[in-house]
């Protein structure tokens, strides 16, 4: 059964983007990929993959031209880890899946590579810092984990410019790699990124995307399997404030037997026109017997004027699987939780902050680097304090 046939078999039908414009649903695997920028038209916002994104503000990152700056990249890590600059085409894990990724691929110049030796078990995390200096620029990172190695790599994106980035990840056979990508640019920064990962035989990938800053941040994470027994855990945390757009798009391509994937993304939104978008695509191909997969997205709306869009998608081409499912939920505070805390003498604002912190804890706690975890908790606390100020201002206006 083809991908298109599967869409029909599972009850999906053609849908419309407006009067007179019926568009058939397109299987995720059928969308174009290319290293050539010319193969992608400049997005208008009417395309399925761009309809949630404020494309009018992204024109600079769609231009097929070199950047006006080179982002600053530096790294540190335990002895034995190799840091080097290599040709961009020295490793090709996944092709660009949209115009911005193709532009970044062609104009980032050389790639910065992080290589974890075979059978190395790192006791300290590797840190990679990517700083956008205030203009338009591109970056290209490569992370290779040798077979039977174990490591944590933290990528910290910061700055105030417009950044287009590509991150390529290879998890060797039997390896266990945790990659934490933190997006915490200035309030007016823009970041469009594509992460491509290939998981080896009996290997484990833990990918954590944390977005806490930036005017517009859109991260696409794509995972495929190079052999049976692979396991991918994809986690995400985001907190969009007034005027911010935080978007996460995932594609897990199950093409090998007996592989697993688990996707859990959680977001909070506060302030007028705070916006989040989460798109989760999972494809189980006909040959991928024994697949076990689940994806979940939860959103917590803290104030009026905020909006969360959540779209889980599952395509199944074989019935010989262990399990497959998806779910999403968007809502406000649980009144029972607030009542429970307030009944024990905790003020309302403090109770709300405890609920939100607990909401994120199960993901942030898996990062595995105490100083990073503490920093993220501090940033979330600062955001919650600003949310409390917004709520008080709103109450004051209503009371006038």
UniProtKB/TrEMBL annotation:
Coiled-coil intervals: none
NCBIfam families, alphabetized: sufD
Positions of region (Disordered): 1-34
GO BP terms in the entry: iron-sulfur cluster assembly
Domain SUF system FeS cluster assembly SufBD core, first and last residues per copy: 137-359
Name assigned to this protein: Fe-S cluster assembly protein SufD
Source superkingdom: Bacteria
UniProt source species: Kribbella jiaozuonensis
Entries under InterPro entries matching the protein: Fe-S_cluster_assembly_SufBD, SUF_FeS_clus_asmbl_SufBD_core, SUF_FeS_clus_asmbl_SufBD_sf, SUF_FeS_clus_asmbl_SufD
Organism classification: Bacteria, Bacillati, Actinomycetota, Actinomycetes, Propionibacteriales
UniProt similarity note: Belongs to the iron-sulfur cluster assembly SufBD family.
A Pfam family recorded for this sequence: SUFBD_core
